Amino acid sequence: VPNITASLLLTSHSFLSQEASAMTSTPGNKAEGRVLLPSTIIPNRYDLVVTPDLEAFTFKGEVKIDLDISADVTGNQITMHAKELCFISASFVDLTGVVQAAEEIRVNTKDTTVTFVFDSQIPAMSKISLTIEYTGFLNNQMAGFYRSSYTDIHGESKVMASTQFESLDARRAFPCWDEPARKAVFGVTLIVPAKLHAFSNMPETSCKSLPGGKLKELSFLDSPKMSSYLLAFCVGEFDFIQAQTNNGVMVRVYTPPGKSSSGTFALDCAVKSLDAYDEFFGIHYPLPKLDMVGIPEFAAGAMENWGLVTYREVDLLIDPTKASSNQKQRVCTVVTHELAHQWFGNLVTMEWWDDLWLNEGFASWAENFAADLIHPEYEMWDQFTTGHLSAALRLDALKSSHPIQVAIHRAEEV
Ligand SMILES: [Zn+2]
Q1: N or C: which end of the chain has fewer CB within 10 A?
Q2: Which amino acids are annotated as binding site for Zn(2+), given as ranges?
């Protein structure tokens, strides 16, 4: 049963007044001044069930988070990231099976956190499972879990929903420890209209029709341990084409219905670059599948979500018989860039955002390396000298030039 403050949040869709910050500023050399969640509570696993409503532009969420509690935990509160979510209830169950419901739910809009306050102490040196029910908005701001509008091949207006979490918008889809070093396993379940496709980072493990027949429940294989900013899911109408890599990874390109032939060029680049990276890195691509999806409304060029890479449509889908050489090279290098991140960034991740330059710098180098192997006729390294290198020197000649590594204290500064 929700308490009074939680009910207020649910019914008014408003937030409580500012609370004292629960965030800590870390001492120590490189980490000095970083504003982080307390390290005494460690998330290991999230089981996330999300039910989007593509007509009302809202979603329901329930997340169960398995937490390790360290010896030096103090107090009766648990704080994590959350933004623009409305909370219905929260409770945890400890190792003895005793359930405790949150007495109070405090939202801090400035820190984008939520604090659950319990009656008694959080049990030190133990494990608990925290279950949170909440609702959110399918926004149109291309961040978090958001909606895109588009016109299909029959001229009909359609809505699809997808995610963009880097750097700090996973917290807009579910309450979580939204820091890159807080890696955890994610088990995702999506409840969606029966006629739509839905997918996530990992392959589907089950699909069952729900009573009434209008909705279906799709569950996906557990993810590897990974950062929250790499989680992704999509819901909508799609066609797809697929091909396999030498090491048996199924690669798919999802397109709007009727447009699957526009994905053939990117699919070929993806299969060949996964093969090239498997060999070059000496570690095979670690997931069983790789999906690539064109999103009608997308802020960046593409996003390297592990196993589910999202793209601005023009950076993925082209007609290879009509596209210019420049368009093909663009699609090829965006694909090879995002797939380099599957290792560099996703498998190996910066501890904090001040090393993001290395994540992006390496992918920017590797996009040329793989594109040159796949399409030597592009002469990528000659283009590198006149393109990337001279652009970098031009920037570096300005008075505004700065060190590559810049201290980041709050994730908002990324
Ligand atoms: Zn990148």
Answers
A1: N
A2: 337, 341, 360
